[in-house]
Automatic annotation (TrEMBL):
Needed cofactors: Zn(2+)
Example of a GO MF term: hydrolase activity, acting on ester bonds
Domain Succinylglutamate desuccinylase/Aspartoacylase catalytic intervals: 94-281
This protein's name: Succinylglutamate desuccinylase/Aspartoacylase catalytic domain-containing protein
Keyword line: Hydrolase, Metal-binding, Zinc
The UniProt record lists the keyword Zinc: yes
SUPFAM superfamilies to which the protein is assigned, alphabetical: Zn-dependent exopeptidases
CDD domains: M14_ASTE_ASPA-like (cd06251)
Amino acid sequence: MFRSLFLRVFVLWALSVTTLPLRAMDTPLPDPTTIVTDRIPHDTGDRLLGVPVVSALDLKSLSPGRHLFYVRVGARNTGDPVHVPVIILKGEKPGPKLALAAGIHGDELNGIAVIHRLTARLDTDSLAGILVAVPGINRPGMIANNRHFVGSTGGGFMVDLNRSLPGRTKGGGPAGLYAGTVWKRIFKGRFDLAIDLHTQTRGLEYPLFVFADFDNPQAESLARALMPDIIKKDAGENGTLETTLLASGVPAVTFEIGAPKRFQETLVSRAIAGVENVMRLRGMIAGTVVYAEKQPVIGTHYSNIYTKTGGIAVIHVALLEAVAKGQHVATLYDPFGREIERYTAPHAGAVLALATDPLREPGSMLVRILK
């Protein structure tokens, strides 16, 4: 009789366990670096790589500490959701809210290394304010190994996501909807300052370089504190993250870090030092604000030297080199090594960008000179 009663109790207990909801049984353990709060704002209930998936960022409701999220920003043509990773460091003390973005162009990767290394070394116990880092906005472009937002509508298309902001949240256009959702769920109305991390596009290279609107004094101070090689006074182009933030009242700059599709250790380290300097400037971390011994070259315009026909290019100048008007900067050759044309500087200035790919189509850029 005792054995029969025991078996009945055991069977009932086993049935209760095996009928628990699947989500409760299968949810992975949270990442140990993530602070698990009693309630995660806008939690969808989903987990990806052990990281909570949210429908929007809510910085106010988070407790101090380190938080990892995926923000749901759209879906593929198969119905699979698209998520953008976000790292949030919320300090124990009040202070500014800084946005640090990377990868809005899918092949520009140095900024991702900056974010990973910077967020790993910061301590939220001594941090004042909030750092929100987004290491890879353009997920479709990154997956496609492409600068642009890559979609499948109409047999496939490409759009520059950094000319598509603030986008839209209703209506047609996959890129516009994606941009609008990213803007609304991650950036809009959440920050006091922002730095958008970029590189040159494939086949070209920059030094450490900042686009900044000097009509905004706070943007100018950010640019100088980043300690770049070159600053271009620039009101920006419509549709970029920088100009969209500026239009919403947030001081922002675009920080260009070298070449695409690689991690360049020296430039990444310098960029991290620059961002930390900005954080000191705004009182987010302790320390004295420093400025480079060699002041950046500051210009207002640049000229691009383009090929007139296709061929094999040899560049005769280096990044940051001072050039004179009329100086020979590049030569184009045909397949047999015969010289096609020599290219000269249209004005004096500093070399801001140059081609790293010798194979140039007609109309391809060879050298960019700032004045």
